[in-house]
Design a protein that fits this description.
heterodimer; A: alpha+beta; 6-stranded antiparallel β-sheet; 3 helices; globular; B: alpha/beta; Aspartate Aminotransferase, domain 1; 7-stranded mixed β-sheet; 3-stranded antiparallel β-sheet; 17 helices
Chain lengths: ~120, ~500
């Protein structure tokens, strides 16, 4: 399972990059199965850590997305509207979900701690 | 052996019925209608003969799979056999040919039946009053939660939050949201029940209700139910019983005695109405006496020596269904109750639980439940994680079961179990059927190592083999699209 060292992680399987980018982990996309729809937040929305910012729907279920940190949404991934499968194919790259400006706060884990949580 | 669509059988000019021309000649719509309302594109309807239609749909009907054709262990759905005598009862002219607007004095028979059914369901649920109006389980949930809301408002204590366990049916949080409540999830403990410590933490002055299914979706009885009820009541909230799994407790234990204040029952699951084809269903709701003034109206009352409808209900949440509910389903339920009697209903629960535990024992050690060995109630949830590590997911096992002639169990629910397969055999299956199903499951388990492609490509014998579920969800084609050439129906390959 792919758990990059340079990202931070939440208990709910989101990742946060140093540039404020946010997505779901390889573990999450594997557990969800084929993603068929991603509900994205509005640009400009102000989020607190733990706020629900969207929904990811797979063939199995629909799951809320929790913001790993606080900040203002400055960008969402426009490709997901037509290609939700990017979340499965490249969860840390082209399957990113949103980007926050000046991310701050949140209960975050490093890669080693997240690896322990998912038993990888 | 693909089956063509009715559109693909179409031939230009073919007709089932040839109608004579109108006596006064054809009307030109352009002379009567504004141009934007006049259709210029072809209708695109299939042009077929009567025999084409009869053969097409008769052939499709033979592809149906139901409880009347085979074993249907679809967990959480209670797909049990429904005795035909109850269909006969519902079809009697004295019930089926009535009009709901007939004068009350001409329908005393059906009103007596409805009143007695209310009483019977109240007795089974341990409730004081019952409404038969809701047309389905989720409809019953909404009715129940709206009554709780009205009751709290009347008490001068409006509350904002409904608690649901993480193993709940999706309809529970959906219902609470629909009724205007915030939803808060309560985690399960290691034994598969509600985590009482976490519940204590979640309860507060904002708690309107806890919605609970008991036995829960893991098929496990909530061992701490009395403590849970005390905690919810001490916090000033109410306890809602989701009757989805009532088949497991009939005649053995009553939700009212467990401390529940509001209960819905699914007549189309537990009480003998076939379901799975979209209804009609029925989800009566029972309440304890303090909530009775809030029941939907009208209410059946004894007046002038007969039964009649009372519409003067100042605190009622109002009507939730046209007329009085799905009466045909109610007649079946009444017939079923009278045929079973108290002893028979108890035996239903006993056999449902025995069958589930027998089947689970037969499947071990190849298939195991996620929760450390606990006796289950009427259903169980296998976690196919060991099979996944060997190369076959729950979905593959389910699809392969179709090749063996069975309707597959529910998969990937409840969400708290990884690679979940939820199996509910019901009380109406024989030991021989359970043994054959267990043999098929064990054979499939061996196939995972011996011939994995059998699972990966299953099902093999059906009209449509493995579906691309992701593509179907991402790019659904929901309508037949015709080409512009009139009279010739062709599919449009590029449609969304």
């Amino acid at each position: 399972m792919n758990i990059p060292e340079d990202l931070q992680y939440t208990r709910e399987h989101e990742w946060l990059g140093k540039d404020g980018r946010i997505g779901i982990t390889d573990y999450a996309q594997e557990a969800l199965g084929d993603v068929v729809y991603v509900e994205l937040p509005e640009v400009g929305r102000v989020l607190k850590p733990g706020d629900i910012f969207g929904v990811v729907e797979s063939v199995k279920s629909a799951s809320d997305l929790y913001s790993p940190t606080g900040g203002t949404v400055i960008r969402v991934n426009p490709a997901l509207a037509d290609h939700p499968e990017l979340v499965n194919q490249d969860p840390y790259g082209s399957g990113w979900i949103m980007e926050l400006a000046e991310p701050a706060g949140g209960d975050l884990m490093d890669a080693a701690a997240y690896r322990r949580q998912v038993g990888a | 052996m693909d089956v063509p669509l009715i559109f693909e059988r179409s031939r230009a000019g073919r007709r089932g019925v040839v109608l004579p021309p109108p006596e006064n000649g054809w009307v030109n719509p352009e002379a009567w209608l504004p141009p934007e309302l006049v259709r210029t594109a072809p209708l695109g309807l299939p042009e077929v003969s009567e025999q084409d239609v009869v053969r097409h749909y008769t052939q499709l009907s033979t592809l149906n799979y139901g409880v009347d054709t085979g074993f249907y262990p679809l967990g959480s759905c209670t797909m049990k056999y429904n005795p035909k005598v109850n269909d006969w009862a519902a079809g009697l002219a004295g019930f089926a040919d009535l009009h709901p607007l007939q004068p009350e004095e001409t329908v005393q028979g059906v009103l007596t039946l409805l009143a007695e059914l209310e009483g019977g369901l109240a007795e089974i649920a341990g409730m004081d009053a019952v409404t038969l109006q809701p047309a389905a389980g989720a409809h019953g949930e909404l009715t129940g939660i709206l009554m709780i809301k009205a009751y709290l408002a009347a008490r001068g204590d409006p509350r904002t939050t409904v608690l649901v366990p993480d193993s709940a049916h999706g309809t529970n949080p959906a219902t609470a949201t629909m009724a205007g409540f915030q939803v808060r999830e309560v985690p399960s403990n290691a034994r598969g029940g509600v985590d009482v410590g976490a519940l204590r933490h979640a309860l507060g002055p904002d708690t309107a209700a806890l919605m609970l299914t008991n036995p829960n979706t893991l098929g496990l009885f909530e061992e701490d139910i009395l403590e849970i009820a005390d905690l919810v009541h001490a916090a000033g909230g109410l306890l809602y019983y989701d009757g989805a799994n009532a088949n497991a407790i009939l005649g053995r234990v009553r939700p009212g005695d467990m401390g529940f204040d509001v209960v819905h029952l699914n007549l189309h699951k537990t009480f003998s109405t076939p379901h799975g084809g979209g209804g009609p269903g029925s989800g009566p709701v029972g309440v304890k006496a303090p909530l009775a003034p809030f029941l939907p109206g009208p209410r059946l009352v004894k007046q002038n020596g007969g039964w009649g409808w009372n519409y003067r209900l100042p605190q009622s949440i109002g009507k939730v269904r046209s007329y009085y509910g799905n009466v045909g389903v109610l007649v079946r339920a009444y017939a079923y109750l009278r045929a079973q009697g108290a002893a028979g209903l108890r035996e239903v629960a006993d056999m449902a639980v025995l069958n589930a535990n027998y089947l689970l024992a037969r499947l071990g050690p190849q298939y195991q439940t996620a929760i450390a060995r606990r006796p289950v109630k009427h259903e169980f949830v296998i976690s196919a994680v060991p099979q996944k590590h060997r190369g076959a997911r729950a979905l593959d096992i389910a699809k392969r079961l179709i090749d063996y002639g069975y309707y597959p169990p529910t998969v990937y629910f409840p969400l708290v179990v990884e690679e979940a397969m939820m199996v509910e055999p019901t009380e109406t299956e024989s030991k021989e059927t359970l043994d054959r199903f267990a043999d098929a499951m064990l054979a499939i388990d061996r196939e995972i190592d011996a011939s994995p492609e059998l699972l990966a490509e299953a099902p093999h014998g059906t009209v449509v083999s493995r579906m691309d579920e992701a593509r179907a969800a991402r790019q659904p084609r929901l309508v037949w699209e015709t080409s512009p050439r009139p009279g010739e129906a062709r599919g449009n390959q590029g449609g969304h």
